[in-house]
Amino acid sequence: MNTAEFTQKYYTERRGSHSRKWDGQHLKFSRTDLLPLWVADMDFMPPQCIQNAICNYVKAVPLGYTMTNPAYIEAVMSWYKRRHSCTLSADWLTGAPNVITGLMWCIGAFTEPNDAVAVLTPVYGAFDTSANDAQRHIISVPMHRTADNRYTVDYDAFKSAIVKNDVKLFIHCNPYNPVGHVWTDEEMEQLFSICKRHHVLIISDEIHQDLITGPTPFTPALSVSGGAYADNMVAMSSVSKSFNMASLHQAEVIIPNESLRSRYNTYRSHVYHTDSDVIAEAAITAAYTHPNAEAWLNDLLAVVRENYDYMYKELYAALPELRISPMDGTYLAWIDFSTYIKPESMRDVFENQCRIAPSFGEWFGGENYATFVRLNLATSLENIKTTTHSIIRNI
Questions:
Q1: Pairing status of strand 201-205 against strand 233-237
Q2: What is the pLDDT of residues 298-353, one digit of tens each?
Q3: What pLDDT score does 227 carry?
């Protein structure tokens, strides 16, 4: 279906539904009447086949104690092979309630208090808070922004930071939140080879893996250089972004190395005692096996691309000194307003003048990004038009 048909069928009014994005504005903003483009979930219902799978399971099966359904494992393996040309082994798969919890468990399992954990910046703020909450030291390595607003890594600086701080763990984000970069095999080879030489474990958050909206194909970290670094890696993913199911608590944690997997599972058993989330497994199985789900995802990507293209064109026509990063992956626009707005005025301009709730850039790496915002484009084109023209009128 075309983008208008998709929106008409799946867009839903979420205000009043206890949505964090729509009804939780008081958590981050000075007012609650804003158009919210902050929390990274969608304003679209998941495909009907997933809704049916959830309803059918609840109608047919008692919600008693369960074990992991082998069909769920097969579905995950099939999706990785079909969608990403990545072959998994069933025994590599373990889990977590969500990717951030899995990340926190990796920090607990593979590092000690006061160990150093490296990230590239700007980056999703939960990486920092997860490490800080666990009393680990975050080592931030700023990326370079090019003339065309893409981000690249200074590999010498990355290596120096690892050596100087005796880094134990590197948290990788692929595709990259918030800048929308999709990593190439060559880029990851350079990062991962440095990690391997200096005995740094790689954790790859790939929650946006299915949301590819540009020309660069997604390469799983497990596949880099023909799988050369898979033995030094934990990869994580979830359907929460791809099919808008963040409230279903199930993430895939993929650990090829048996010793690492054993350490992770031992730590997990100390902090988490529960059975499988049968509702999540039913939903994921449908998402990864039903052809209508994959068609829904492809249609969604067209909507996100249309929204980005509209915002990009209109904003640049009116505000040509803006710096908007290309969105090759995710459904998130990363925009620098430094030519037009002073850092100390960002909140007033967006909240009180534009009446928009963005994710502010400082949430992704501190004051160096105080003139940036991240805008969630997984909504209706009408909301994107309202946002775009409000920015143009008030800046």
A1: parallel
A2: 999 999 999 999 999 999 999 999 999 999 999 999 999 999 999 999 999 999 99
A3: 96
Ramachandran class of 370: left when φ > 0, alpha when ψ lies in -120 to 50, beta otherwise: alpha
Cα distance between residue 240 and residue 68, in whole Å: 19
Per-residue pLDDT reduced to its tens digit, 264-289? 999 999 988 777 789 999 999 999 99
CB 345 within 8 A of CB 380: no
pTM reported for the whole predicted model: 0.95
Beta-carbon contacts of residue 348 (< 8 Å; ≥ 6 apart)? none
Query: Are residue 144 and residue 245 in the same domain, yes or no?
Result: yes
Question: What are the backbone dihedrals phi and psi of residue 116, each rounded to the nearest 5 degrees, phi first?
Answer: -100, 135
Of 244, 263, 290, the position where a domain reaches its end is 290
SS3 353: helix
- Neighbouring CB atoms inside 10 A of 18's CB total 9
Q: End of a domain among 270, 290, 310?
A: 290
Q: Buried (b) or exposed (e) across 36-56, using 16+ Cβ within 10 A? A: bbbbbbbbbebbebbeebbee
Cis peptide bond N-terminal to 122, omega within 30: yes
Whether 54 is in a domain gets the answer no
Q: Residue 350: which of 314, 387, 305 has the closest Cα?
A: 387
Nearest to 161 by CA among 179, 142, 178: 142
**What CATH number does residue 154 fall under?**
3.40.640.10
Task: Dump strand ranges (E) for the chain.
Answer: 35-37, 93-96, 116-121, 137-142, 144-145, 151-152, 167-173, 201-205, 233-237, 251-254, 323-324, 332-336, 356-360, 372-376
- Domain-embedded: residue 59: no
Handedness of CA 77, 78, 79, 82 (dihedral sign): positive
Whether residues 227 and 108 share a domain: the answer is yes
What tokens appear for 310 in the block? 């509209």
Residues of the chain with pLDDT under 50: none
Q: At CB < 8 A and 24+ separation, what contacts does 292-296 make?
A: 292/47, 292/48, 292/49, 293/47, 293/49, 293/50, 293/243, 294/83, 295/47, 296/10, 296/46, 296/47, 296/243
Question: Which residue shows structure tokens 């009408």?
Answer: 382
First to last CA, the chain: 36
